[in-house]
Specification:
211 residues; alpha/beta; Ribosomal Protein L4, Chain: A; six-stranded mixed beta sheet; 14% strand
Length: 211
Amino acid sequence: MLVPVRNMAGDQVGTVELPADIFEVEVNIGLMHQAYVRQMANARLGTHKAKTRGEINLTKSKWYRQKGTGRARHGARSAPTFVGGGAAHGPRPRDYSKAMPRKMRRQALRSALSALAADDQIVVVDSLATAAPKTRTMSEALRALVGEQSALLLLADRNDPVERSVRNLSNARTLRASYLNVRDLLSHDKVVIPQDALDVIQGFLGVAAKR
């Protein structure tokens, strides 16, 4: 797939051939969904907890005598039937993490990138660089590249000026190419990929990575 390469002003400065084994594979929606569910599940802390009746600090003595009152037979005030009592089947701390083979995770990324490429949502730029952190500079560059749409900017490596310039933009965020994931790819209208970041993606998703 041949796509134009643009500079930060939005002008075309060349073309690049996107690797077919990454950007032109058969889109597997089920696999992408599985990867997304895994990612969201692994982000859960699982620290939720409700106290049981044995953990409530209330008196355990009977409220009133067992017989003769005409009322139900109640014991401790910490019973789940009372306000302030313990939860009968409340949440307990647990691990929500899910496993997924690496080959499946990478194929899900290829499917997501292929779906974006097919919908013309991939924007390749020659480079993303600023001399100093400047939100206005990146805002103008993104407006020239993607208009008013939300954008995910992939970076080949740490780039403090660009990362700090994008930090205050509500419709854009940066991500290292080596941290590529299905959730971020599918939650933005456009994916802006510098050529050095494209090399990083090809390094772990290309033909050599399948072996």
